[in-house]
Design brief:
3 domains, five-stranded mixed beta barrel
């Protein structure tokens, strides 16, 4: 069964030499070379600040000043190494997360400066009281306040990035989506499996989103006691696994933790709300969900309608090769199917069951279930025309 973390990159089993070679190749490539150079400069600056703080602490006869400088030195090193580790581990970064981090840092610097302006007179008075008028200690305290403020700002915006808006009185700037809209997959279309075959053709060039609650519904179906439901759920998980490993499609897992979804419980309603939030289109086979999306003003793609649109267009008088596989409902009729599944009713084709014949199309009937073609075996059709003359 596919675990909930199915969207994570597949791990590769490499020998140590191959792993080292791969890592080295990634490091020395063009863009990565500049990135690692920036990381090394950052580490060098952090180590320099930590060394300066340690030297300051070592030279102080005052025990409190020594402890404070030592804490500052260790804090700088820990924060630096933590930032580098997170940057290296997190390869695929989202623009919303990066925006939250950047704005959090700007807000943190601003708040830190305000706090330092307010606390600076108190710190000067305290240093004078303990007879330690050290300028370097003031700088270290200011750095500590700034780091703390930046952490609070980044942490707050990361936790509230989905609710964060820039609001001017009476005006709100909404997010504008450029380029192709993402496709939000429904449970029914995943179980159906044709979406994976469509992805193999390379015709889909936009991102496909699978919400976490859809994956949970698939897992619930796969764990069902009913054998048919269990097989359908497992088929859906296999389809997702196939799409995940397909290099022609970009498949993304969406946590679905938007504030708009907090009071919505039904999966279909959550899909509609999520599609609105990400400005995407719902892909489904569910007739009812199709109608709900249309009523809610959400674009929807129905694979059944797409399949019908791609079926062969036959005009009266054209010839089609078909294999008659069974007898029809009416006397003398035979029934066959084209490669795309279109049903062909062959008049006077009962005697041709099991044979490949060429028919002449007499009429085409479009039904809600699909398209039906009526025709006669070519020789019989020509004979009927000659008799009528």
């Amino acid at each position: 069964m596919l675990p909930t973390s199915w969207l994570r990159p597949q791990s590769l089993v490499l020998v140590p030499e191959a792993a080292l070679a791969t890592t080295f190749d990634d490091m020395v490539s063009g863009p990565n070379r500049l990135l690692w150079l920036a990381r090394l400069l950052f580490i060098f600056m952090a180590v320099s600040i930590a060394t300066d703080a340690f030297v300051f602490a070592y030279d102080q006869p005052n025990r409190a000043a020594f402890i404070l400088g030592l804490i500052m030195s260790l804090m700088v090193l820990v924060v630096c190494l933590g930032i580098i580790a997170v940057d290296v581990v997190t390869r695929n970064k989202e623009i919303t997360t990066l925006s939250a981090v950047y704005f959090g840092l700007l807000l943190g610097f601003l708040i830190g400066q305000l706090f330092w302006t307010a606390l600076s007179p108190l710190i000067d008075a305290y240093l004078t009281l303990i007879q330690l008028p050290e300028i370097r200690l003031k700088y270290l305290l200011q750095l500590l306040i700034t780091v703390f403020s930046c952490y609070v700002g980044v942490s707050t915006l990361l936790q509230t990035k989905d609710e964060f808006r820039f609001i001017i009185p009476y005006i709100e700037f909404s997010k504008q989506i450029k380029g192709p809209k993402p496709l939000v997959l429904d449970t029914s279309v995943i179980i159906d499996g044709r979406i994976a075959d469509i992805c193999d053709t390379g015709i889909i060039d936009t991102k496909m989103i699978v919400p976490r609650f859809v994956l949970q519904e698939l897992q619930g179906i796969a764990d069902s006691s009913d054998k048919i439901r269990r097989n359908r759920g497992r088929r859906g998980l296999d389809v997702l696994k196939k799409m995940q490993t397909n290099p022609k499609v970009e498949l993304q897992m969406h946590e679905g933790n938007l504030p708009e979804l907090r009071d919505v419980q039904k999966v279909d309603e959550r899909l509609v709300v999520l599609a609105k939030a990400v400005s995407g289109r719902v892909v489904t086979n569910d007739f009812n969900l199709n109608k709900i999306c249309q009523l809610q003003g959400v674009e929807v793609i129905n694979l059944n309608e797409l399949s019908n649109a791609l079926k062969l267009v036959a005009l009266p008088g054209e010839s089609l090769p078909v294999k008659v596989v069974k007898v029809g409902d009416q006397p003398g009729q035979g029934v066959g199917y084209l490669d795309d599944g279109t049903m062909v009713v062959v008049e006077q084709g009962r005697q041709a069951v099991g044979q490949d014949v060429t028919i002449t199309v007499t009429s085409v009937l479009q039904t809600p279930a699909g398209r039906m073609i009526f025709g006669r075996i070519a020789g019989a059709a020509e004979h009927a025309v000659m008799t009528s003359k």
